[in-house]
């Protein structure tokens, strides 16, 4: 936990699910609580991945960690929006019990880890607390009984590329951030860089990491470059100078309003007006 928190990640996900064996969960919960409570200035970025709602551990996880006021909760292995709404009711009660403002605890949802959830990735618009959707390939493979989630060349096979696409589409429909899944090989930073840059082009706004060495690579890939910012500024300024135009000639081609929307979004991501 300390190693992760000392890194450059925007959010540190402290895992009570897959990283903790069933027999060790009771002992892990107070460790997580105490760590978050001991770092009050960092609480906003110290999130907890609880266990899935279809098991026996979720409420115990929440009761243990909510008094420490974590920055947010990750909910894994959902079956659909109803799981988010159930989590919202639990969190609301625990926020009241611990003097936390109601609705103050945001949620990121793993929306493709069960076969059923794949049919509901577009259902999260207006779902309480949800600020991001992400996906997972390993648990999905287990859920459908697949022997592997990879093609012979190492790329994800069709079902898992579909999961990735449904996640970014579902996030767009819900108006929240799409977050790419992990790259398990934390030694291959070049492959990570290439993949992070690709998914950013596809509409993802971040990526999960499993090792501190991955974080700077991911951060760099999702940070607009100076050239991108300059081009976006040029496009925004061009439309501002021609407010009545729906399409404008630019660099030998034509720009229409979707180009303006993308340029404005990039500038917002770069923290520019």
Automatic annotation (TrEMBL):
Top-rank taxon: Bacteria
Cofactor(s) in the UniProt record: Mg(2+)
An annotated GO BP: oxaloacetate metabolic process
Binding of Mg(2+), residues: 113, 139
Keywords, sorted A to Z: Lyase, Magnesium, Metal-binding
MF annotations from Gene Ontology: lyase activity; magnesium ion binding
Keyword Metal-binding (UniProt): yes
Residues annotated for substrate binding in this entry: 49, 113
Pfam families given in the database record: HpcH_HpaI
Domain HpcH/HpaI aldolase/citrate lyase: 2-212
Residues annotated as signal peptide: none
Protein family: Belongs to the HpcH/HpaI aldolase family.
PANTHER family: HPCH_HPAI ALDOLASE_CITRATE LYASE DOMAIN-CONTAINING PROTEIN, LYASE BETA SUBUNIT, PUTATIVE (AFU_ORTHOLOGUE AFUA_4G13030)-RELATED
This protein's name: Citrate lyase
Organism: Novosphingobium lindaniclasticum LE124
């Amino acid at each position: 936990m300390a190693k992760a928190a000392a890194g450059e990640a925007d959010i540190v996900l402290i895992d009570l699910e897959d990283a903790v064996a069933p027999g060790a969960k009771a002992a892990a919960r107070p460790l997580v609580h105490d760590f978050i409570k001991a770092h009050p200035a960092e609480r906003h970025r110290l999130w907890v991945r609880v266990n899935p709602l279809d098991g026996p551990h979720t409420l115990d996880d929440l009761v243990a960690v909510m008094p420490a006021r974590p920055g947010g909760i990750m909910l894994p292995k959902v079956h659909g929006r109803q799981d988010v709404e159930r989590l919202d009711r639990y969190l609301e009660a625990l926020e009241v019990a611990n003097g936390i403002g109601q609705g103050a605890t945001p949620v990121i949802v793993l929306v493709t880890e069960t076969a059923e959830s794949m049919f509901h990735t577009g259902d999260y618009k207006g779902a309480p607390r949800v600020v991001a959707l992400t996906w997972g390939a390993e648990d999905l493979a287990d859920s459908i009984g697949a022997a592997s989630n990879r093609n012979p060349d190492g790329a994800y096979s069709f079902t898992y590329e579909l999961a990735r696409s449904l996640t970014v589409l579902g996030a767009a429909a819900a108006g929240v951030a799409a977050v790419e899944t992990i790259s398990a090989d934390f030694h291959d930073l070049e492959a990570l860089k290439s993949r992070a840059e690709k998914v950013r082009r596809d509409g993802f706004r971040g990526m999960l990491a499993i090792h501190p060495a991955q974080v700077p690579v991911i951060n760099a890939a999702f940070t607009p470059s100076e050239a991108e910012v300059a081009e976006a500024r040029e496009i925004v300024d061009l439309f501002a100078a021609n407010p009545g135009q729906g399409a404008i000639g630019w660099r030998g081609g034509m720009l229409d309003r979707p180009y303006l929307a993308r340029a404005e979004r990039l500038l917002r991501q770069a923290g520019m007006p």
